[in-house]
Amino acid sequence: MSEEQRKLFEEVNMLQERLTQDQMEYWQVYSNIDTWQFWIVLFMLLLPLVVLYYTIDRRRMFHLGFYGFNVHAWFAYTDIVGVQNGWWNYPYQILAVLPSSFSLDASLVPVSFMLIYQWTLNHNKNFHLYSILLAIIYSFAIKPFLTSIGLFELGDGVSYFHLLIGYLGIYLFAWVITKIFLKMNKANVESM
Fold first, then answer.
1. What pTM was estimated for this model as a whole?
2. Which of 22, 71, 121, 142 has its CA 20 to 30 A from that of 62?
3. Where are the transmembrane segments (predicted)?
């Protein structure tokens, strides 16, 4: 590593450490357990997981879980990029050490898409239609509501339509990956 690269690398690390300290301080003052926002965010994390526990089709648990994990992973990556670039932000979080959108990324969004997927599989309904409707609800109802109560902020130049494009891309990409893995698994089982 060149001296110039080393210097810049150390500066980036120092700024990252400072950012982490500032995030901890912010959480302790504005986003801690004593705020009503903390409890709403906690509710958004726990309630979907409880609902999922009681409603998941246990015969298809791994299939649905694989799809849900895909939604979770791609939504989390998208949120990280969005937050780091100032496209949107979440002023309140469960813990300062977790991503700011943890409740949505790890629970609310993946569980809701999993339950839509499960329902369409079990009732022979059009998965894409209902996923598009869910993406519209998130983009034009849930996110604006979260904005109105101060739990979500859009950055300059970003609209709820941009969020819709993201939701649509994520559900579709997660579905394609799930289908590929199901096909590979079926081929593997048949070859045994």
1. 0.91
2. 142
3. 36-54, 66-88, 94-117, 129-152, 158-182
